[in-house]
């Protein structure tokens, strides 16, 4: 009868990494996955034309932790990739996240980077929202104002979750706090969405990378 010292639920990148680390520590590990594939929402596969397709949408890898960087390099190689984000707004492609370029292109202004915080503060001052946030809208408007909420965030909640933002509770959107980071470190971001030291695309398919993490666990001493 087989026995295991650790049970990992889910063979996504987090689960696969946890299983690998536990196995390398000498634990007997069992990984269970409800899907018919590994790699979680980073799963990819080649289509009939031999092109690698991301099942749930494309993913990149980025980190500012050298230990993490060295770890993943044990299982795949990466190519350089700079992630630049534009949002389609009113028939134009506008830099996003919100920064000086965003404001200037939207409103025909010429504010400098150091003036972004004051500009957004004034947008917030002229907006209506609950000071104690009850919805996603309250969280966003309290940081960037109603105009930017309508332009960048309102339709996104519908596309992503298929129901209006007023039904989304505030605790589901902690990631909106990244706006505050962009507001204080805007010069480093400019048109580039990530400031991590290593932003790359895996040369090998992510699914192969995940299999590299867990595929040989049974042989790990």
- Estimated structural class: alpha+beta
Total number of beta strands: 9
What's the story with the biggest beta sheet?
3 strands, antiparallel
Q: Within the largest sheet, what's the order of strands?
A: 5-9-6
Extract low-pLDDT stretches. 159-164, 167-196
Number of helices: 9
Distance between the termini: 19 Å
* Helix amount: 25-40%
H/E series, N to C? EHEEEEHEEEHHHHHHEH
Mean pLDDT: 77
Q: What share of residues are in beta strands?
A: 5-15%
Gross morphology is elongated
Could you tell me the radius of gyration in angstroms?
A: 21 Å
Q: Descriptors for this entry?
A:
single chain; 221 residues; alpha+beta; three-stranded antiparallel beta sheet; two-stranded parallel sheet; 37% helix; elongated
Describe what this molecule looks like in 3D:
This protein has 221 residues and is α+β, with helices and mostly antiparallel strands. It has nine helices and nine strands. A hairpin with a 2-residue loop joins strand 7 (86-89) and strand 8 (92-95). Helix 1 (13-24) runs parallel beside helix 9 and helix 4 (116-125) packs across helix 5 (136-144). Mean pLDDT is 77; it is low at 159-164 and 167-196.
């Amino acid at each position: 009868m087989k026995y295991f010292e650790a049970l990992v639920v889910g063979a996504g990148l987090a689960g696969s990494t946890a299983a690998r680390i536990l196995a390398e520590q000498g634990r007997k590990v069992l990984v269970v996955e409800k899907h018919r594939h590994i790699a979680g929402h980073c799963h990819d596969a080649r289509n009939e034309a031999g092109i690698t397709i991301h099942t749930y949408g494309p993913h990149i890898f980025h980190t500012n932790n050298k230990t993490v960087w060295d770890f993943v390099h044990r299982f795949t190689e990466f190519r350089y990739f700079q992630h630049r984000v534009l949002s389609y707004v009113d028939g134009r492609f506008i830099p996003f996240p919100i920064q000086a370029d965003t404001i200037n292109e939207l409103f025909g202004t010429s504010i400098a980077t150091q003036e972004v915080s004051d500009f957004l503060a004034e947008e917030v001052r002229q907006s209506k929202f609950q000071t104690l946030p009850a919805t996603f809208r309250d969280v966003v408007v309290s940081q960037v104002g109603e105009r930017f909420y309508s332009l960048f965030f309102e339709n996104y909640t519908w596309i992503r979750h298929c129901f209006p933002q007023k039904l989304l509770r505030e605790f589901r959107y902690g990631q909106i706090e990244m706006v505050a980071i962009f507001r204080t470190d805007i010069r480093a971001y400019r048109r580039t969405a990530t400031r991590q030291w290593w932003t790359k695309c895996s040369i090998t398919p992510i699914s192969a990378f995940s299999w590299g993490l867990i595929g040989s666990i049974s042989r790990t001493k």
